């Protein structure tokens, strides 16, 4: 005799629920990919429009201002600038998606090769800068909020104001004058001393990582001595912003009823601060950190110029001065793509930290 269950079993219930979860996850992933695609397409349209309306003739930047009309027209046809704008935009999108940004007038190399060479230098410096900013800025903002009105809170607020008001190039020059020229505590401009340049095979483009992969500790510590000062300058500006925003978020949470209830119940103050008040601010704080990191990648032009840092900011400045539009648009696209990726990464972290965002 066999007995059949009167109702649905755990397996039959779990099957549809797993299928629903899988469907929701697939839908969320598809939505993110579509959003990224349309955002990037909009970025392509903006850069294409800028390249056409800016008062710089890309043909003259290639052939020179002494070229004959015949040479000028031949170059214009070869560059596809004689075609209608929709056709030019289509070819532009196809070339960019295939990794072809054209050739740089400034360096004579493919722009894609230049970006692969210069962008890792900016990424390395900005990453170290945001690490410094987060490790120092978040605790400073939390402490300032927890001790509102006390002397150290005032000091932290002054540091935040300095971060907004002090010019980046001035702080970089002062740092070089003191810590490099006067005391010799750090390396000078550039990523490495000249006799170390080219000794490490480029694997990732990040000199700190590549030197460790090669097992060359001398080059690693030499690179540390060069990057620590510009990264600290960048870290100071991100620290000021992160500390100020963290303090603002914490003050709002410390005034909530659930924090007062936790204190009345006798919960330890450090638990009240870090568990009850700090956890709810993680989501907006991720946005602040993400925007700060993207800002460091985009706004490190002055620091790279002061420290002769071979990054994308320095590359972009040189390209602008030489009217090198292929390089300008390629670098702009890379920075814009980084903004898009950081924003989407922030959205993913929202869902990991806050379960309500998953629904």
Automatic annotation (TrEMBL):
Residues 119-350 form the ABC transmembrane type-1 domain. The chain crosses the membrane at residues 26-50, 125-146, 158-181, 219-243, 281-303, 323-342. Keywords: Cell membrane, Membrane, Transmembrane, Transmembrane helix, Transport. Coiled coil: none annotated. One of its GO terms (molecular function) is dipeptide transmembrane transporter activity. It is found in: Cell membrane. InterPro entries: BPD_transp_1_N (IPR045621), MetI-like (IPR000515), MetI-like_sf (IPR035906). Residues 1-20 are annotated as: Disordered. GO terms for cellular component: plasma membrane. Its main location: membrane. It comes from the Bacteria. It is a multi-pass membrane protein. Pfam families: BPD_transp_1, BPD_transp_1_N. Belongs to the binding-protein-dependent transport system permease family. This is Peptide ABC transporter permease. It comes from Martelella endophytica.
């Amino acid at each position: 005799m066999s007995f059949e269950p009167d109702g649905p079993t755990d397996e039959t219930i779990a099957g549809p629920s797993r299928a629903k979860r899988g469907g929701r996850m697939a839908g969320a992933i598809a939505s993110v990919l579509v959003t990224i695609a349309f955002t990037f397409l909009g970025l392509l349209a903006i850069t294409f429009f800028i390249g056409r309306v800016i008062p710089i003739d890309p043909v003259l930047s290639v052939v020179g201002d002494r070229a004959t009309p015949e040479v000028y027209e031949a170059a214009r046809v070869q560059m596809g600038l004689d075609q209608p704008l929709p056709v030019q935009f289509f070819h532009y999108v196809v070339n960019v998606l295939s990794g072809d940004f054209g050739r740089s007038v400034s360096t004579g190399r493919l722009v894609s090769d230049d970006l692969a060479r210069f962008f890792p230098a900016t990424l390395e410096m900005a990453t170290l800068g945001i690490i410094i900013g987060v490790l120092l800025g978040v605790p400073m903002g939390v402490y300032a909020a927890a001790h509102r009105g006390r002397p150290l809170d005032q000091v932290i607020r002054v540091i935040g104001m300095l971060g907004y008001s002090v010019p980046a190039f001035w702080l970089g020059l002062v740092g070089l004058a003191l810590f490099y020229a006067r005391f010799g505590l750090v390396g000078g401009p550039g990523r490495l001393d000249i006799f170390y340049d080219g000794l490490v095979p480029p694997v990732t483009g990040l000199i700190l990582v590549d030197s460790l992969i090669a097992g060359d500790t001398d080059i690693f510590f030499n690179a540390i001595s060069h990057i620590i000062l510009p990264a600290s300058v960048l870290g100071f500006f991100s620290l000021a912003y992160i500390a100020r925003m963290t303090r603002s978020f914490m003050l709002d949470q410390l005034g909530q009823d659930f924090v007062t209830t936790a204190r009345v119940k006798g919960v330890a103050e450090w638990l009240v601060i870090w568990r009850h008040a700090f956890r709810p601010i993680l989501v907006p704080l991720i946005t602040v950190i993400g925007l700060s990191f993207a800002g460091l990648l985009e706004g490190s032009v002055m620091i790279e110029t002061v420290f002769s840092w071979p990054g994308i900011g320095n590359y972009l400045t040189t390209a602008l001065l030489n009217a090198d539009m292929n390089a300008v648009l390629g670098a702009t696209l890379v920075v814009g793509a980084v903004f898009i990726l950081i924003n989407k990464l922030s959205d993913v972290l929202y869902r990991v930290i806050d379960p309500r965002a998953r629904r």
